[in-house]
Amino acid sequence: MVPAEQGGNVGKLKKSERRAQILLELKLRPHVRISELARRFNASAETLRRDLDALAQDGLIHRAHGGASAPSRGHYPSLDERTVERTAERERIAHLAAAEVHDGETLMIDSGSTTIELAKALAYRDVSCSIITNSLPVAMTLGHGAANVMLCPGEYQPSESAVIGTETLEFLRNYTVDRCMIGTSGFSAEGVSETVHGFAAIKREMLRRAGLRQLLVGSEKFGQKGLVRVAGLDGLDTIFVDARPQKKLLAALDAAGIDIRVADRVPTRTHSEQMKPREENT
Amino acid sequence: MVPAEQGGNVGKLKKSERRAQILLELKLRPHVRISELARRFNASAETLRRDLDALAQDGLIHRAHGGASAPSRGHYPSLDERTVERTAERERIAHLAAAEVHDGETLMIDSGSTTIELAKALAYRDVSCSIITNSLPVAMTLGHGAANVMLCPGEYQPSESAVIGTETLEFLRNYTVDRCMIGTSGFSAEGVSETVHGFAAIKREMLRRAGLRQLLVGSEKFGQKGLVRVAGLDGLDTIFVDARPQKKLLAALDAAGIDIRVADRVPTRTHSEQMKPREENT
DNA sequence: ATTATTTTGTTGCTTATCCCACAAACTACT
DNA sequence: AGTAGTTTGTGGGATAAGCAACAAAATAAT
Prior knowledge:
disordered N terminus; 2 domains; 3-stranded antiparallel β-sheet; Rossmann fold; DNA-binding; alpha/beta; Arc Repressor Mutant, subunit A; 7-stranded parallel β-sheet; homodimer
């Protein structure tokens, strides 16, 4: 390639130097864009794209369309891919559940994408309650408002940005709350289940320490069975869902006397339905 | 109108509600993209574009191509304005201190902007040690690597994204570690001091539980005296600084037999060297 | 109810980014 | 050297984002 010399700029930087500079830049600025970096380093956009992808792989930056931004706090995993798709459902569930909470209550909230949405909904309402959680995102979301947040101790689990372990369980045993609101990865007629053992134990303990035992669960989890059993249906008081369960599960829920709260999709929209040519879902 | 609209209805949000949620989202995630927001709010991309532009106008977010990111490093807004300025110094101090830590060690790290830098430096080195901290950013930064992170319980303090309180202190008393590394807001010949009472108590307890008691402090803190006394100079073993203290403070440090480690400005390239091992596998 | 104002959605078009595969250039190693 | 492996650049088609102006609702005001 022609070593094009441009006004005072570097001819060619090695890969590592480029990437170090990118990281440095992101310490000062919240966001850089690819086109800008390509010009600065006198390299092609593809090269910079590869740089950003590599850095994002290592979790050093957060990739975005057209550029990248600093991972702000240690990255919030957002375990997504599909999480983005299901956000609308989770949001509806979360809002419905958040509406139940009154000022002055004490509650426990566990970790997971659904409960993070719950935390956002509560933060938005700015409810003045006391919350015990093992989820760092939940604590951070609620901590800025009127709520009083108590974080559990424990071993940090990056996959969910939460803490787990014996310290967590032991800590929870010191408290009793009005209500607990938890999520789950599996929900069937047999009850609540989890794929990760550590999280199952937390949920179980929270259920034990709470007066009202409430579950937030998306309909995509119906029928799913995780590795570890958390609780049977008789261990629950309320479930918040985005769609009514099918008959078999529904029958089991009724038999257990569980209050089913469905977050409806369209409460006051008669016209919007017909004008949704592109985005039919949500 | 729309009084009881709160619960479970995400059908249509008003402008202000949308924008509040966007800000909330950016507390957790470094970057949001327009297409994603449009889907979530069931609104057109244009609307969201207008939202982001408006928020950016107010300086509440940082606009980017295709989305927006949180402004500055601000999500740990905390600390203060000067945090951005002093980043380079803190980074040097942090790298110097991080180089001291070996695999298998146990250490306590407290909260603050300097110790977050320390956590980043340790994360780069990927040291395999056990860490106890009350800082959420520190936990999240180190949690993804080889380190084993134990988070303290306590009341969440949004100003520093850390936990404090009696639960924290009580928890710390159960542990003994090889080394503790803490920051401070004030450092003078009389010792270490803090402006916030809760944080002072944490630091004091950590110093008590550690074999090696090490302080990371920028030269801008020299001579500063906070409200609450944390420890005298005789309570410290090592200080990591970015510049040699003046004679009066220096004399006091010598008298106390404190090891002074100065992070020189010149030996840069630390950044590129730190990243080298990481890029082998790209 | 009827305006006025604000807010949102849509259309058409331009531009930028993405992604993939392959070729060119560079580096390291025997 | 020469070769193998890496790193970078280029091209083209697909996709997403930007922009501007106007139309359609929704909201507020009279």
